[in-house]
Design brief:
Number of domains: 1
Structural class: alpha/beta
Number of strands: 7
Order of helices and strands: HHHEHEHEEHEHEE
Bound molecules: S-adenosylmethionine
Oligomer: single chain
CATH class: Alpha Beta
CATH topology: Rossmann fold
Number of helices: 7
Largest sheet: 7 strands, mixed
Shape: globular
CATH superfamily: Vaccinia Virus protein VP39
Length: 258
């Protein structure tokens, strides 16, 4: 069911001419796409190699896609992307942006609740969930996380970003003790992640994931509303046994070329 305008907390942020969250994709996602999918690396993979390895098509899922900054980055890198969100206005903005960029044929928008989304094991070569697991209750988030990890293909990558208890919008310590400005959309965050939580999910005994990058940080946000601070955790992972040419973000000692 599409969320009606009246009950969509993100309608107004996505309706602005200056669309909330901007167009810059999550930096770890773009870094992975640049290095592993588009860059080619020493093994000469690149998007053509990946396509061949995956027998034709590469499919991505963007959960809580918003107005599509990550969806569009994935499409630009060659993925066929399913963008899922409750916000009809967000999905409309994705379609507008995709049409303008000539990427519409690679993008399917789906108005749905991520908690109800069916995912087939190993269905997706990229799964992105940028600040959505924190917009649903903790029990649901864990179930969606499990489905996401099962739906990841052998050569795919998974990215998740969540608000943490360090966020000044959080009602727990240490965030609640901060006097830094709080996001205008903080009311939609219902599940702040505790320190290490996302990393622990990814490294649990029954997890099939290998972490490429994990970070907890504070960051200033200028992409919507008055400037404000966020506490965030980000995780980039692949399946255990998959070893793409990932040099890090930023690469520690990048190769000098030319
Ligand atoms: C903070 S925004 C992030 C948007 C986008 N991922 C980005 O980083 O630009 C959170 C998004 O999650 C969506 N959302 C929240 N709960 C959801 C749910 N249960 N199912 C699908 N989308 C949801 C909201 O509509 C909103 O677009």
């Amino acid at each position: 069911m599409i969320m009606p305008e009246a009950t969509d907390p993100f309608f107004e942020p996505y309706d602005r001419a200056d669309i909330a969250y901007g167009m810059t994709p999550s930096s770890a996602v773009q870094a992975y796409l640049d290095q592993v999918i588009l860059g080619g690396g020493a093994k000469g993979q690149g998007v053509d190699g990946q396509r061949a390895a995956l027998d034709g098509q590469i499919a991505a899922l963007d959960l809580g896609a918003g107005a599509g900054r990550d969806t569009l980055a994935l499409a630009r890198a060659g993925y066929n992307v399913t963008a899922v969100d409750l916000s009809r206005r967000g999905l409309e903005r994705i379609e507008q942006r995709a049409e303008k960029a000539g990427l519409l044929s690679q993008i399917t928008t789906l108005a749905a609740d991520v908690r109800k989304l069916e995912m087939t094991p190993r269905q997706y070569d990229a799964i992105v969930a940028t600040t959505v697991l924190d917009h649903i209750p903790a029990d649901d988030a864990e179930k969606v996380w499990r489905r996401m990890t099962e739906a990841l293909s052998d050569q795919g990558f998974l990215f998740a970003e969540v608000h943490t208890t360090e966020d000044p919008g959080c009602d727990q310590q240490p965030g609640c003790e901060s006097d830094a400005p709080v996001s205008e959309t903080a009311g939609a965050v219902v599940n702040y992640f505790s320190p290490n939580q996302l990393a622990m999910w990814a490294t649990a005994e029954n997890s099939a994931l290998r972490i490429l990058h994990y970070e907890e940080r504070l960051e200033w946000d200028y992409t919507h509303g008055p400037e404000h601070l966020h506490g965030k955790a980000i995780l980039l992972a692949v399946r255990r046994g998959h070893h793409p040419e990932w040099y890090g973000q930023p690469p520690a000692f990048p190769r000098k070329r030319g």
